[in-house]
## 1
Amino acid sequence: MVTLIIGKKGSGKTKKLITLANEAVAASNGNVVVIEKGSKLTYDVTHKARLIDTDQYGISGYDAFFGFLSGLCAGNYDVTDVLVDSTLKIGGHDFAAFSDFIEKVNVLAAKSETKFTFLVSADAKELPESLDAISVKI
């Protein structure tokens, strides 16, 4: 399952992500992974979640990001939740490429039985209509 949390900068998306991550850790029988660009969530997310900074791995662009997520699921069969902050900073602002990326992640989510949540700093009107069904506007 893939969920997008969409809102402009300053709308409370990161606070929502922190809450979701901490709740997922409490409810999960596996591992919860939080992915961010930079290391700003270190003290906000429980230490029981795996916190990954994409800058440490040189990830940029949606192809590299999808490969990273696939490797994460392949290497850790017990990952139950992946939450991503700053999705557009990691992959880029090409909304057509973003839409294709989300379609691929949706297939990955089904195969690996992992829930993916992406934070998107944009106006919902900017995103392709194909993403409306999985979007939560803040």
Note: The first strand starts at residue 2 and ends at 7.
## 2
Amino acid sequence: MGIPLLEFFNVNYSYHTISCETLSLNNISFQLNKNEFISFVGPSGCGKTTLLNLIAGLLPVTSGSIQINGKPADLSNLNIGYMLQKDHLLEWRSIYKNLTLGLEIQHKLDKTHLEIIDDLLKTYGLWDFRNSYPRQLSGGMRQRAALIRTLALSPDILLLDEPFSALDYQTRLNVSNDIGSIIKEKGISTLLVTHDLSEAISMADRVIVLTKRPGTIKSIIPIHLSIEKRTPKTARNAPEFNQYYNQIWEAIYDENEDFG
């Protein structure tokens, strides 16, 4: 399979205050392979978002190490895309201007990258809204726009921090299906943090269950669904789906009855 695209080696992270030190993540080790999709689930406060922030370089590890494509994370030249819970679209910029913001910041506002944005807008139904403003779009359309903005930078690794949590159930299902299909089609290695077990199973190749704080890996569950042309939506109809759901729920329930 070659060198893992991302690898954690016994990573610990602690929050420090004037009065104390709080261990948030404890002895985390796992690999993300090329074109793989991993979902992280676990009780509230177990460090799922902190884990993504470590990968993005927003926080430094306390001990242990993170490697990206076989190199220390701070020496890697791979692009990491980060899609947050809120779309963070700027209300005073048109959708098109929002999508080019990252390119402007990174001085990549060239023909090649603009063609990528145009293609994504046309493919995913936002071309006719490119000159609209965020307030004129539905929640689902805003999340599609946020994803296009992230994909415009051609990320090698995509981090998703509960990107559908603010949407109603039907929209959430449709948008997660669209975004999951886009990710699979483009072969982007992805890490998803979610509280929605159905979402975690339907989108992932593996689900990693974290314990309550300090978060450590309790189990890693490969997902094998016997369904043709799998998408996040059709995956929920697989005969094995409920079995995986119960297995993951029991692993979390053992740790903390309050999963939300």
Note: The radius of gyration is 19 Å.
## 3
Amino acid sequence: MNQDLTVGKPSAVLWRFCLPLFGSILFQQLYNLADSLVAGRFIGESALAAVGNSYEITLIFIAFAFGCNMGCSVIVSQLFGAKRYRDLKTSVSTTWIASGALCLLLMAGGLLLSTRLLRAIHTPADIMESSALYLDIYIWGLPFVFYYNVATGIFSALGDSKTPFFFLAASSTANIGMDILFVTAFRMGVAGVAWATFICQGISSVLAMAFVLKRLASIPCEGRAPLFSWSLLGRIARIAVPSILQQSFVSVGNILLQGIINSFGSGVIAGYSAAIKLNNLVVSSLTTFGNGISNFTAQNLGAQKLARIREGFRAGLRLVWTVCLPLTLAYFFAGKGLLRIFLDSPSGTAMETGITLLRILSPFYFAIGAKLAADGVLRGAGKMRPFMVSTFTDLVLRVVLARIFSIPFGATGVWMAWPFGWTLAAGLSLLFYRKGEWQKSVL
């Protein structure tokens, strides 16, 4: 059901809108968590390392899908808030056409270069074959990833955060069952993990697209909406391209970090793969709250309710910090038990690596949460330059310091670089928000 985010108490509206988004990202992460869980417990530590190793490269493709999601979502939110429904429908079809073309290019490049990318990050020989197999199957499923992301972005733009939640709950639960079935009953190994994800994502994507078409048909507009608009594509691209660049460079940075980590051997890779899944669950959840703040900002910007946006930011910041508190405590004090979800019979190196990473990073979730809340306002207002500046500062600092710190401190030095980047980037994003340039945005 479509929801107008421009009316009602901002804190209550954001809580109702963002909590289903939080549930959605939890189930979204189950795709990757399930892959790692099944690989680690039912195949072995090397399989977990292979899935985790390939995961950093899949994030590049996800960056493009996420960019398409954000570009469409922000513009649709603004048009929905301004009640320009004809342009809204055209922006959706324009995004679908452009996303399809982009996806085909990425698939061609990915299938040609996947092995080279794995070699570039110094993938150990004992997991190279499994990593390449998992990555190739993932690339064939890219159309599902793209169109599902765009569909969920449209639902969020219309104020509907519940429909994506229901899709993800069903498909993620099914994915766990299929992972176990393909690995234990069919003995398909890492390939079974990849194909289970492929099938579940495919079904979710098709259903989500069908529901989007039905939802759009229920929105009244005068005359037939054009299928494509260069002007709307330009507006979408002004949001999407910086988002893609930001996410892509973050992924490239993660790949560079993975290259450093891989030099420490399979035990460290396995421990990192398990711990980073838990870490990404938190960061992805906080990012989703930031996306919710973006939709809230965009709709209210379309309705020219600037004071309401400022109140929404304060409510959003309280929301993300409320979520940070229990997760920080759980990771810091109960990290060993959580890591055992992925590591059935871990080596001492793998467990020690995972525990150290979680204890270093978890206290700084409050900093990254503040950054993502401020970024939500900037992105919802279309102010991508300051958003990118803070993100790239975080990325560059983390990669440079990781390489420097890894010399005297080993793998622990890599984890030590994260808090420096997060803290400085949070300060920059909050500064850009306080300067108020986003208030000058116009449709």
Note: The chain has a mean pLDDT of 87.
